[in-house]
Write a structure and sequence with these properties.
By secondary structure, the chain is mainly alpha-helical. Helices cover about 80% and strands about 0% of the residues. The chain is built from 19 helices and two strands. The protein has helices at about 10-15, 20-50, 50-55, 60-85, 90-125, 125-135, 135-150, 155-165, 165-170, 180, 185-215, 220-240, 245-255, 260-275, 280-285, 290-300, 300-310, 310-315, 320-325; strands spanning about 90, 175. It has a two-stranded antiparallel sheet. The longest helix is centred in the N-terminal third of the chain and has 34 residues, at about 90-125. It starts with 9 loop residues before the first helix and ends with a helix.
Length: about 325
Amino acid sequence: MNFSAGESNFTVVLKERDTFETALTKNIIVVALCLSINYINSMLVHTFTKHQMFKTNPRYILFIHLVVNDILQLTLACLLHVLSYIPFTLNVSFCCFLLVTAIFTTFNTPVNLATMAIERYIAVCIPLRHAQICTVQRTYITISLIWVLTALPILPDVFILVANEPISFFSSRIFCHLENLFRYPFMIERNNASLHVFLALVWLTLLYTYLSIMFAARAASGDARKARNTILLHGLQLLLCMLTYVHSLLQSRLLQIFPTKLLDIRFASYVIVQIIPRFISPIVYGLRDQTFRKHLIGYLLCRVNASTYPNNDTLFKMSGREKRLL
């Protein structure tokens, strides 16, 4: 979600519209990418829920929270994109719900990454106390605190909006964009400042945990090296999350070079900023982790497995020798 207040080309977007064929193509691309990534992420969630070993590991609990957050954020981004083409304007109350939820999920991502880095730091640098500190109960409490913490920057703006806008405003229709809903400039500036503080704290956390684990990795510990690489990937994810701050500037620079390609530039930046980062989590955690990958591939290839292996009723009827051959 972009919180930048300086999109000088926003009014131009309201005047320019894609042709039907172009709009249809763009929406098909967005929906296809969204469904593909959400399918993989749904398989990750399904794998997590089917195995008790994942439910008792704080590392996997935090990971699956990040995946669920990605599913929600990507679904909202896709929905907002499609609705901007079909009805074009939305009811203010519905728009407010979508945007506020999208802001929640945007703030959640960096804080969740920092929490996952801290968990890896404890596992490698304080291994004897890891089981005592990182319990399942404390992990769920931490996730609840993440949601409370990420609600602090945006909820005051919602209260200000309700207190200052007339009731008729909430039953009207607007183009669902942050600047149209939160029309007071200080709201955008405060949101930007809040997210900058969040990101600064996350970067400091990642830097500290990475350096601590790097020194621990000198002891040739395989777990330390894996944890170090994981935190590097956290940094890559965070860099992708920060694209939301530079994409307005990037759009302005590209428009200077291609002044007639505003809609195409906005669509390309939307895909890069909103969709591509959501594709990283399944690769970093679902496919890179050997234990998770083994079960995930089994579910992704469920049809092959179902046709290759006998079902429970067939196994019950088999002799002991036949079962051993399996």
